[in-house]
Amino acid sequence: MSKQNTKQTGQKIITPAAGTQKAAPDLLKSGGFRLPYPLLWLALAALIVYLPTFSFGLTELDDSIFIRDFHFYNEHLNNLVTSFHRGLFDAVKDPYYRPLFMDSMILNYQISGQGQNIASYHVLNVLFHVISVLLLYQLFRKLAVKELHAFILCLVFAVHPVLSQAVAWIPGRNDTILAIFVFSFLLFSIDYSNNGKIKSLALSALFLLLAYFTKETAVFAAPVAFVLLVFVLRKNWLEKRNIVQYVLWAGCFLFWFAVRASATIQTNISIGQMARDFVPRLPLIVQYIGKIFLPFNLSVFPIQEDTVYYYGIAAIILLGVVIYLYKQRDMQAVLSGLGIFLLFLLPVLFVPSKLNEQTFEHRLYLPIVGILLLPQTILLNNKLKDKQLFTGGVVVCSLLAFANYQHQKAFESPISFWTAAAETSPHSAYADMMLAARLDKDDFARSCDLFRKAYALNPHEKYLNFYYGVMLQKKDSVKESEPYLLAEKNSSGYYECDFYLARAAMERKDLNGAIAYLQTYLKKDPANAQAHNNLLLLYLDTQQPDKAKAHVKEMQAAGINVPKEFLQKLGM
């Protein structure tokens, strides 16, 4: 730069630091009020708000898969390494690559009594959130945000109801763990840019790699670091220390990409498909902004079709007016905050509808940080005294905390979760299907109505044909169930179909076909006593005593009780 400029921000005059880079502006004005032990109060606020979740169970949206269905995988600590070589839900046919999330479930399984103590999963979820809140406070202070303002902003982050899914829903920890690593990466990147210490550089690289192996969103962590260093802290982007970091960031990305490419994951999702779905998903930006500023239409299972836009439009207009009216606004800081919001939100916009049509709110866990980094407005820079500002902030956060408390109740059980999902997303066939399946025993008539509604919405919804076939069998329409079960088996390959297809085959007097279905089923669920008994009975009915005796031994070896009448028939 050819000359040094002075810039006024509030009551403080900022002058350039020595050399060619500008000093970071104090983003918020100074004041005399100081809250003692801010980290302690933030931790307590987050803990108190989410304390009720300690008694929650499962929602049966993915959490039952990672805890119960994966219990054989979670039992073995050597799978901590295996997680880096496989997909998330399936070892091969899965586009999701989340090894550190899988490892967190393995370790949690070890300390939870082999997955029996669900409370331990919720406790760890809250702990991850508390750590994220504290790291975010440290990050804001590194960005020269005034202590009081950093506290208020982090208090909003700690209790905001739009983030409750990331904490109250066990798989939501993927975003809180990611935030821990991303915030740590940003902190050490800033440190290295300031002090040039190799230790800071090494730690920044470590946390960036950990973020990559947690969730794909981490790809945008390095661009966010660039925005913070160059546009918020006003450092020279060609400064030697920053160039060193650019090279390191590229190296971390290439390392992660190579490890991911060597894993067994496969996906049939093309870049062209992602690009085609990108434009229709752009309105999600408006929906998400509305949920941040006016969190009145939250959903545990939101879809774009059932989420209104007027809250988002109102929030954008209000935000624009406030920024415009504030005469001392720093547009560079404002645009930086908006840029960070959009960078962290980009992965959501590229998710193909074929893969996932849900617009989950836990995905806002990192993007909301960009919105919180909009301090150059009258909302914080105003004529209010610090004590008044503190009181107002606490009042607003108390209201947000109450809304959070009300919203998080939906995550308490499968019934509460899927009831809320069906109510807030009436066009979701999946939500109706899942609620119907859970009402099957207590309210069969309503369950049938929901299955029929779901089928009318989307007859191709995954697992719906299976549930529909089971419903028909429970209504003694066994023959009518077969086409639905076959359709599900052909589309998703769901192994449970074979159990009910065996009954349909028996109804048609196709005993050999029923045997084949049960044999296939037992390969997936070898502990199902009913399936074993049915297969044994079929061996007897088809005059296959040798296979029947061999199957009895197989059942006994597995610790499955064999009815006495079967043993008597076989002379065993």
Describe this structure in words.
The protein has 572 residues and is an all-alpha fold. The chain has a domain of 373 residues. It is 63% helix and 1% strand. It is built from 28 helices and two strands. Strands 1-2 form a two-stranded antiparallel sheet. A hairpin with a 2-residue loop joins strand 1 and strand 2. Helix 9 packs across helix 11, helix 19 packs antiparallel against helix 20 and helix 22 packs antiparallel against helix 23. The longest helix is centred in the N-terminal third of the chain and has 25 residues. The radius of gyration is 28 Å and the shape is elongated. 41% of the residues are buried. The N terminus is likely disordered.
Number of helices: 28
> Radius of gyration from the CA trace?
28 Å
- Proportion of helical residues: 55-70%
Order of helices and strands: EEHHHHHHHHHHHHHHHHHHHHHHHHHHHH
Strand segment count: 2
| Unreliable parts | 1-31
Strand order of the largest sheet: 1-2
Mean pLDDT figure: 90
Termini Cα gap: 95 Å
Fraction in beta strands: under 5%
Shape, principal axes of CA atoms: elongated
What structural class do the secondary elements suggest? mainly alpha
The description of the largest β-sheet is: 2 strands, antiparallel
